[in-house]
Amino acid sequence: MRIGILELLIILFLVSVTMIGCSGAVSSNKIMPNDKSLSNECTSGIEPAPISLQNLYINSMPEKYSYDNLLADIKTLQKGNADKLKCVKLCDTADGRGVYDIILGNPNGNKQILIFGAMHAREYITTQIVMRQLCDAIDVLNGVDKTSSYRGISKKYLLENVTIHFIPMNNPDGVSISQFGLSGIRNTDLRKKVSAMYSGDYAQWKANAVGVDLNRNFDADWQDFCGSRYPAPERYKGAYPGSEPETAALIELTERYHIQRAISYHTCGALIYWYYKQQGEVLAESQRFAQRISAETGYPLDNDYTAVDAAGYKDWAVYKMGVPALTIETGGENERSIINPVPISRFYDMWERNKNVVYATAYDLL
Ligand SMILES: [Zn+2]
Asked: How many angstroms separate the alpha carbon of residue 123 from the centre of ligand 1?
């Protein structure tokens, strides 16, 4: 059969289009942890691919695990696990960052757990703890270690019995200030306000970018808390409970999903706060839960709410919502000294103590 010039040109054109299409597909599958093209929105990666935890920033243990690192890792995790994860942006912060809720399991499940980190800016190492817990849980669900169990019960079974909300970085603006100083704030006007508010060591920043201490912004004797009267790097409680997008998001999520167990990660001091005026059944459940996590981590329990500040998330959850909730102060395990930000060299000790907290919490809901 003879092929004319026109037919030959058509064939060459089709071949070249096919080749371009293939190379495009290959390039879109390549997931690099330093991919800066990620938008602030969660992506909905749908390509099934085995998860490669080696590609995550969390595994490279950066001293400053940043908001951009977090976004890149969320994107990577989603690529191979879209059937297990749902990522929801809860709110926008003053400096235009997102607070992300990564939901593991059925969002409509009837046993819901909340675990969050980095509410206090300089305590950003807790983001890595929460992310490592998430990665570990994904590995379990993916059958990486089929024999893994907790107290004789398959970890996979424990996870499948619950829904877990992981919020690795509740205060991304504050974390950026603690990690990068004024240059961590992108909005010019906001940067000026932060500069006017404080001129000390920005590594010690705890608040969000408008100077509200998020863990003093909840409706649990909020009116009685006396800290700073003005926006500040720490201990300013805000204009009213839940005034900040970061705290309003936690309040809304706790109410909407009927959260049944909550853990708020902080540093440091190697201690668990669990009590704030709760009574009756909530008191009994809270105490049992706290003792279980204390036994798991080796952190002792604090038993005197009068000695701690009011208006924290845990205080509101146990006192106003009836939800057994803990503040886990990790870090400082051996030296009992307070060093913030906790150096990354402490991470493995922290991880060893906290690696089964997810399973212990799920076990508590059996
Ligand atoms: Zn804290």
From this structure: 6
Centroid of ligand 1 to alpha carbon of 284 (angstroms): 25
Ligand 1 centre and the CA of 256: distance in Å?
A: 25
Any domain includes 9: no
Please check whether residue 354 lies inside any domain of the structure: yes
Q: What is the CATH number of the domain that holds 294?
A: 3.40.630.10
Q: Kindly give the distance from the C-alpha atom of residue 244 to the centroid of ligand 1, in angstroms, as a whole number.
A: 17
What's the confidence (pLDDT) of residue 49? 43
What is the average pLDDT value for the chain, to the nearest integer? 87
Distance 267 CA to ligand 1 centre (A): 6
Q: Is residue 18 part of a domain?
A: no
Whether residue 207 is predicted with pLDDT greater than 80 in this model: the reply is yes
Is the residue at 7 inside a domain? no
CA of 312 to the centre of ligand 1 (A): 10
Helix (H, G, I), strand (E, B) or coil at 96: coil
CA distances for 203 relative to 71, 180, 207, angstroms:
22, 8, 11
Alpha helices in the chain (DSSP H): 5-29, 57-60, 67-80, 125-141, 155-160, 172-180, 188-197, 245-256, 280-297, 313-320, 347-354, 357-364
Domain count, the chain: 1
Three-state SS at 24: helix
Q: Is the pTM of this model over 0.70?
A: yes
337 CA → ligand 1 middle, Å: 15
List the domain range (segments joined by +) for residue 181.
Answer: 53-364
pLDDT tops 80 at residue 7 = no
Q: What is the pLDDT of residue 301?
A: 95
Over residues 59-84, the pLDDT tens digits come to: 889 999 999 999 999 999 998 898 99
238 alpha carbon – ligand 1 mean position (Å): 16
CA of 173 to the centre of ligand 1 (A): 15
